[in-house]
Specification:
Blueprint (H helix, E strand, L loop, with lengths): L2 H9 L7 E2 L2 E2 L1 E2 L10 H13 L10 H21 L7 E4 L2 H16 L5 E5 L8 H10 L2 E5 L9 H7 L4 E7 L11 H10 L3 E5 L11 H4 L3 E5 L10 E5 L1 H6 L10 E3 L6 E2 L13 H17 L1 H20 L4 E3 L9 E6 L4 H10 L2 E2 L1 E3 L4 H6 L5 E5 L6 H17 L1
Parallel strand pairs: 3-15, 5-6, 5-7, 7-8, 8-9
Antiparallel strand pairs: 1-2, 4-10, 9-10, 11-12, 13-14, 14-17, 16-17
The structure holds ligand C6P.
């Protein structure tokens, strides 16, 4: 990306001007959460200052304004990911909540003892633990696609795991640790041949690549707004209408009902059946600002810029003695995890922080993957559309200094 364009983009993110211990902030923890452009924060503020009323409840002016904005945001999300209609977009609290919704509601209704769920060894805990609940409650069998040394999934093993007992396959589109982008379309086709439904965890992919749920063939797809330049507290579950229609509600309360009586309660239509309680209608509208911002920049520009950053980062990191990068998948997003010799990942993260460089350290909520690579933790640098090559230089210089200290 041209430097002048990049500096305009950076000026949209006021937080990037922060100083940390007298160093300019270098924010390389984007896989945990991205920073927010000014337009998103302004939408949040404007909604609270000018447009705040509970949605779907009031006949009054403000409630109608808020409802219209919230439902428009839903339509924009549907269009953004190629859903057939707004009825397929359930607003949740985040990707974790979305995955729990599928596991709980679909699992509760359609899975029984001995049925099989397939996940992969590179999953985030959010795509493991909800399925383990079903293991405990219902005797569902959890099967795991192994990760190979290069950080790709073993697709032969995947094929062998599929059986006529497979009911669900739930896999990350992109690993939050290795950056590996999985061949979801092919994996979906195989799952469908076996008669299973496919859940895509798109928490890490949507910030970096356009997603079309029809093209992927996904039955369900989950993500968080806060990783896509949007606010915290908002997530999305896309679900094919016919599946959502068949599923029982996830939680009970206001919003999700048609009629309540002590004799019999009936539920609202899609997607409200799955949205008990007051939704974060301010957050959803701010999320639609984030999506508009992404569209304005254009995924093609984001992808080109991030690919350039990744190539540069790999070149720089490979120059550092004893630095080991985990995974080398040919298809990978803007995330790189590594260790340096025997230096503890936490020490590296803490020392980088003193230089103003924010990275994540630890198990990255992917303990099985850490076990796979026989480590307790890793250091992770993850990039976004506003990062620069000079920030990568600062990271590499910082790492060289740290290596010398031990
Ligand atoms: N990963 C990371 O630093 P929530 O916390 O609900 O917004 O997203 C959960 C989640 C699900 N799947 C994947 C692949 C993820 O990476 C995450 C969140 C962050 O890697 C925070 S742990």
């Amino acid at each position: 990306m041209d430097n002048s364009i990049l500096s305009v983009i950076r000026s949209d993110f006021p937080i990037l001007q922060t100083e940390v211990y007298r160093h300019p902030l270098i924010y390389l923890d984007n896989a945990a959460t991205t920073q927010k452009p000014r337009c998103v924060v302004e939408t949040l503020t404007k909604s609270y200052l000018e447009n705040n009323a509970n949605v779907h409840r009031g006949v009054h002016y403000l409630s109608q304004l808020a409802t219209e904005a919230h439902e428009k945001a839903r339509k924009e999300v549907a269009d953004f990911i190629g859903a057939s209609s707004e009825r397929e977009i359930v607003f949740t609290r985040g990707c974790t909540d979305s995955l729990n919704l599928v596991a709980s509601a679909y699992g509760e209704a359609f899975l029984k003892e001995g049925d099989e769920v397939i996940v992969s060894e590179m999953e985030h805990h959010s795509n493991i633990v909800p399925w383990q609940f079903l293991q405990e409650k219902k005797g569902v069998v959890l099967k795991v696609i192994p990760v190979q040394d290069d950080g790709t999934l073993d697709l032969q093993a995947y094929k062998a795991l599929l059986s006529d007992r497979t009911r669900i396959v739930s896999v990350a589109h992109m690993s939050n640790v290795l950056g590996t982008v999985n061949p979801i379309r092919d994996m979906v086709a195989l799952a469908h041949e076996a008669g299973a439904v496919f859940v895509v965890d798109a928490a890490q992919s949507l910030p970096h690549m356009p997603i079309d749920v029809q093209e992927l063939g996904a039955d369900f797809l989950a993500f968080s707004a806060h990783k896509v330049y949007g606010p915290t507290g908002v997530g999305v579950l896309f679900g094919r209408e016919e599946l959502l229609e068949k599923m029982p509600p996830y939680q009970g309360g206001g919003e999700m009902i048609a009629h309540v009586s002590f004799k019999r309660t009936t539920y609202d239509k899609l997607p409200y059946k799955f949205e008990a309680g007051t939704p974060d209608y301010v957050g959803t509208v701010a999320f639609s600002s984030a999506l508009a911002y992404l569209k304005k920049i254009g995924y093609e520009n984001i992808q080109a810029h991030e690919a350039e950053l990744m190539t540069y980062a790999m070149e720089q990191l490979k120059e550092i003695d004893d630095l080991h990068i985990y995974g080398s998948a040919p298809e990978r997003g803007a995330v790189v995890s590594f260790n340096i010799g025997k230096i503890h990942h936490l020490d590296i993260g803490t020392l980088l922080d003193r230089l103003g460089i924010a990275v994540r350290t630890g198990h990255h909520c992917a303990e099985p993957l850490m076990n796979r690579f026989s480590v307790e933790g890793m250091v992770r640098a993850s990039f976004a559309l506003y990062n620069t090559k000079s920030e990568i230089d600062a990271l590499a210089n910082g790492l060289r200094r740290i290596r010398k200290m031990f």
